[in-house]
């Protein structure tokens, strides 16, 4: 169902305050394009925005467009919203206040923008999405993208470039019934659809006729194909009976197999019955044998128990024999030990006497040996103290000190190597800068340094060490380039010698003969300097030998050159007040000069360059210092080596002396130990003698052994009697076991005979069973084949009464049926056709014919419906459009006749090509000329401007937009046309319900006629504009000053 057409837009009427709904009441800008802050209150009718070029008039136009949901592209300037933020700022804002439907309703739209191309929208102070603002703008029919309503300066030329079609579209949107653009778009779309339907219908009609013609040519072939298909269908019906005949054959085979299975089952049952009759006696025999075996197992168990008991008694008898023999042996050992004890007692007595004699021969202890031991201990302690507590720590200290010196020496050598590398690097820099023989000059000075009276330095570049690389650019910028390759002497004779020998190397030679104290005192950095970010002088940021540094300071005034920070850049104008005329900052070099005549100060500012020569490094003076340090360390290490050698020799002597004293003390100690060992041996012998002399009762011990032997013999007798009883019991058990075993063998023989007969009958039963199983499998196979044959027959040809009647007319055997099938197929093949696929092609094509016919009928219906809809819309749209263009033409012709010769606006109608309809503007500016279409090829820029403004004025009475903006449209007009254009604008603005209008221009002609409908907005810009703004910010101020000359005039 179609949507209802939009309601006709009501004519906008003015209120009591003379404003119309959607009029702009106030524009406020902040950090936008050329403005820091801007605020104006436009009038309700014609607003003349005047001001010099570059003052910001077009900024006002951009603000209106962007603040009312316009895109940056429509302004013809920057393509991103961030570009409209004032340069140097991060963000800005646009606030536009619109009048609502009543006087009391005010709508404030705010758009905040930033340099990241982000926007934030506020509606009456509340943050809202852009769509809410767009709906509000659309409600008042504000179209900032429509050139007939909004014509910025950079797009004035685009209006003349509008094609008639585009001009019609823009005019429909701006004036007249709001349904016109909708109806126009519907006509364009529906006519496009109608054309596509017509093309499709023509294509389908051609295809349909072609298909019908092709099918007519195939009708004869189709008849022959159908006859052949009928014969082949008869053959196919015969083929359907084949599986049913095969099914009957399988059914007969199944019945025969089933009968054989039943016979085999009867034979198997008879064999099974006979087999059961033979198994019963065997079962009884086995049960009796099992009972006998149970008794035999019990006897066998008792025999085993008897055997275990006899084994225990036999083991006990063996154990008693062993214990008895051990008792007899203990008696014998006791007699032998007694004899041995007597012999040993005699031997110990002799050894004790001999040891006591040896102790007497040693004589009494010598007291002098104790004193000698004390003296040796004291001397050893003193020697060890000197060796380990005095000399050894001293040696360690000397070695540690030597190690530290060696580390310092290695560090010094590494630094020297690094210094030599950096010097080479700096010499490479000088050579690359144009001093090709700087290496030769440097080497000559180094090789002949002994012939100079005083120290010679150079080149200066390798002598200077700048601690902060950022200051290197300042020093290079202050000093002349020649100084870096110069050599400096401190004696006139050295200077002359150096000039003579270095002349061929093209290097300057400077002589320093002054005294540091001769220079006047230099003040330190004061607090007022630090307040401006000044922190040091240029002579304080580098190190160099005194002569080198003084030459640089005196040659280039380094002690009067100061260094500041980024803060100093911001306060650079205050630096000369402190008496500073040379200043370096991270980005700029300031040099101020004072006129000798007028006393005024002029400044020169240069950008700080990149250092080409100087880097952070040590200088040659430091190299000499390191070489001296290297020699001093080598001498110290040699002295420490000699001290360590003397200490190690003395330490070795004391160690040897201590070892000799320990050897003497060990000899004395050995004598003491020998005496102690002899005393210990005597005591031990006495203890052994004492233990052997203790009395022993020999008869009592032997009687004890005899009593124990008798007890063991009694136990042996009792054990033998028990063993006899067990043997008698075992013989009785063995006899019973043998009898039961014989009975079991007899049972086995009987059972074996019965089982042989059973086995013979089992063979017969097994063969009967196997035969039954084979017949059963055969029956199952036949049954399965029968089911498969039935399923196959049903799948090929399900049996129906009609088909069964057909089968009765056919042969009843498979052989006869196959013969009939072959004959029928031969008959079908005898029918010849040129196109075997004729029937298939005919039927496919017939189906396509039916489908195309249905499509064609649907398209004809759709075509009629679309044509009706187009005519209905056209009947509404075209008369209204013709009437609108006629009104525009009447107003345009009248207005244009006042400014030029003649002009007309016509509707370019293109029948049903609704997308090609357009508005054609024709003008002529000369009496003898003819009407020409408005374009850049026929009219000048001023003529196009006149035509454009006249066309826009012609829309005034018909427009439904709340305001219109035209930027500098009067540029290029002559004075006469500009005056006429202005009079028409004033006259149009004075009409009751014309929209609010903004005309931006850098100038106005004098003595123009104004009315109360005019509001003049003067845009000025500059550093002294703030104070006048305070006076002029109220709308009545200008009227008060001019004494009501122009009525109510706003600014």
UniProtKB/TrEMBL annotation:
Coiled coil: 194-358, 651-692, 835-876
Boundaries of every RecF/RecN/SMC N-terminal domain copy: 26-990
Keyword terms of this UniProt record: Coiled coil
Highest taxon in the source lineage: Eukaryota
InterPro entries (alphabetical): P-loop_NTPase, RecF/RecN/SMC_N
Pfam families in alphabetical order: SMC_N
Similarity comment: Belongs to the SMC family. SMC5 subfamily.
Protein name: Structural maintenance of chromosomes protein 5
């Amino acid at each position: 169902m179609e949507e209802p057409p939009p309601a006709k837009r009501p004519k906008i009427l003015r209120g009591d305050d003379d404003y119309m709904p959607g009029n702009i009441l106030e524009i406020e800008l902040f950090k936008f394009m050329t403005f820091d802050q801007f605020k104006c209150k436009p009038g309700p009718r014609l607003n003349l925005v005047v001001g010099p070029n570059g003052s910001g008039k077009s900024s006002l136009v951009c603000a209106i467009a962007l603040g009312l949901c316009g895109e940056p592209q429509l302004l013809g300037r920057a393509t991103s919203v961030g570009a409209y933020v004032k340069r140097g700022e991060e963000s800005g804002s646009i606030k536009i206040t619109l009048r609502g439907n009543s006087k009391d309703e005010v709508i404030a739209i705010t758009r905040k923008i930033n340099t990241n191309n982000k926007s934030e929208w506020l509606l009456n102070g509340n943050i809202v999405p852009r769509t809410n603002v767009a709906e509000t703008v659309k409600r008042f029919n504000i179209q900032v993208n429509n050139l007939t309503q909004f014509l910025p300066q950079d797009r004035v030329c685009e209006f003349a470039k509008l094609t008639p079609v585009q001009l019609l579209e823009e005019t429909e949107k701006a004036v007249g019934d709001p349904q016109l653009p909708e109806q126009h778009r519907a006509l364009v779309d529906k006519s496009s659809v109608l054309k596509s339907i017509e093309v499709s219908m023509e294509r389908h009609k051609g295809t349909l006729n072609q298909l019908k013609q092709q099918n007519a040519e195939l009708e004869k072939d189709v008849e022959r194909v159908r006859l052949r298909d009928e014969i082949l269908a008869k053959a196919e019906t015969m083929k359907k009976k084949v599986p049913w005949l095969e099914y009957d054959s399988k059914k007969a085979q199944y019945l025969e197999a089933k009968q054989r299975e039943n016979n085999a089952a009867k034979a198997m049952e008879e064999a099974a019955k006979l087999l059961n009759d033979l198994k019963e006696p065997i079962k009884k025999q086995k049960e009796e044998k099992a009972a006998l075996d149970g008794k035999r197992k019990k006897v066998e168990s008792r025999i085993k128990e008897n055997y275990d008991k006899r084994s225990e008694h036999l083991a006990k008898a063996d154990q008693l024999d062993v214990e008895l023999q051990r008792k007899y042996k203990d008696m014998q050992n006791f007699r032998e030990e007694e004899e041995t004890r007597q012999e040993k007692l005699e031997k110990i007595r002799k050894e004790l006497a001999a040891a006591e004699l040896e102790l007497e021969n040693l004589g009494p202890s010598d007291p002098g040996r104790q004193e000698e031991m004390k003296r040796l201990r004291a001397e050893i302690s003193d020697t060890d103290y000197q060796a380990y507590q005095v000399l050894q720590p001293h040696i360690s200290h000397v070695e540690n000190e030597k190690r530290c010196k060696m580390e310092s020496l290695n560090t010094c050598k590494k630094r020297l190597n690094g210094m030599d590398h950096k010097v080479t690097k700096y010499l490479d820099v000088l050579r690359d800068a144009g001093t090709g023989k700087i290496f030769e000059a440097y080497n000559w000075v180094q090789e002949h340094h002994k012939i100079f009276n005083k120290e010679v330095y150079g080149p200066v570049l390798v002598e200077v060490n700048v601690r902060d690389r950022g200051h290197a650019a300042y020093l290079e910028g202050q000093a002349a380039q020649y100084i870096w390759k110069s050599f400096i002497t401190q004696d006139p004779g050295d200077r002359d010698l150096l000039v003579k020998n270095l002349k061929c190397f093209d290097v300057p030679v400077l002589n320093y003969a002054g005294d540091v104290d001769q220079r006047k005192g230099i003040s330190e950095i004061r607090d007022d300097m630090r307040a401006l970010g000044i922190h040091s002088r240029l002579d304080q940021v580098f190190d160099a030998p005194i002569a080198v540094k003084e030459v640089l300071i005196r040659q280039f005034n380094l002690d009067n050159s100061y260094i500041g920070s980024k803060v100093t850049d911001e306060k650079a104008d205050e630096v000369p007040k402190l008496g500073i005329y040379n200043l370096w900052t991270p980005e700029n070099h300031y040099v101020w000069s004072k006129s000798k005549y007028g006393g005024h100060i002029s400044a020169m500012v240069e950008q700080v360059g990149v250092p080409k020569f100087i880097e952070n490094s040590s200088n040659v003076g430091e190299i000499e210092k390191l070489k001296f340090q290297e020699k001093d360390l080598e001498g110290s290490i040699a002295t420490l080596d000699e001290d360590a050698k003397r200490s190690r020799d003395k330490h070795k002597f004391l160690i040897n002396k201590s070892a000799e004293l320990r050897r003497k003390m060990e000899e004395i100690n050995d004598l003491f130990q020998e005496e102690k060992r002899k005393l210990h041996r005597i005591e031990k012998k006495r203890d052994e003698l004492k233990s052997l002399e203790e009395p022993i009762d020999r008869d009592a011990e032997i009687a004890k052994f005899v009593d124990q032997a008798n007890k063991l013999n009694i136990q042996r007798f009792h054990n033998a009697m028990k063993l006899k009883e067990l043997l008698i019991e075992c013989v009785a058990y063995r006899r019973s076991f043998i009898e039961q075993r014989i009975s079991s063998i007899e049972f086995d023989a009987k059972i074996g005979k019965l089982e042989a007969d059973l086995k013979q009958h089992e063979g017969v039963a097994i063969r009967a069973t196997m035969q039954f199983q084979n017949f059963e499998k055969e029956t199952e196979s036949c049954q399965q084949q029968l089911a498969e044959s039935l399923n196959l027959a049903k799948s090929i040809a399900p049996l129906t009464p009609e088909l069964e009647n057909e089968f009765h007319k056919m042969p009843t055997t498979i052989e006869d049926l196959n013969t009939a099938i072959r004959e029928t197929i031969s008959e079908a093949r005898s029918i010849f056709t040129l196109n075997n696929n004729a029937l298939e092609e005919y039927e496919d094509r017939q189906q396509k014919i039916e489908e195309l016919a249905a499509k064609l009928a649907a398209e004809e219906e759709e075509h009629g419906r679309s044509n009706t809809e187009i005519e209905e819309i056209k009947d509404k749209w075209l008369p209204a459009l013709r009437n609108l263009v006629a009104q525009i033409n009447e107003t345009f012709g009248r207005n244009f006749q006042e400014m030029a010769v003649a002009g007309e606006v016509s509707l370019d109608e293109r029948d049903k090509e609704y997308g090609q309809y357009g508005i054609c503007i024709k003008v002529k500016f000369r009496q003898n000329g003819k009407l020409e279409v408005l374009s850049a090829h026929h009219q000048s820029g001023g003529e196009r401007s006149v035509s454009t403004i006249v066309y826009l004025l012609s829309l005034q009475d018909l427009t439904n937009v709340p305001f219109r903006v035209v930027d500098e449209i009067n540029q290029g007009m002559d004075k006469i046309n500009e005056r006429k254009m202005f009079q028409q604008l004033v006259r149009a603005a004075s009409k009751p319900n014309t929209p609010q209008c903004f005309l931006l221009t850098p100038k106005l002609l004098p003595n123009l006629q104004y009315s109360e409908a005019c509001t003049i907005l003067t845009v000025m810009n500059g550093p002294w504009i703030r104070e006048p703004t305070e006076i002029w910010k109220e709308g009545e101020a200008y009227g008060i000053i001019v004494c009501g000359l122009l009525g109510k005039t706003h600014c």
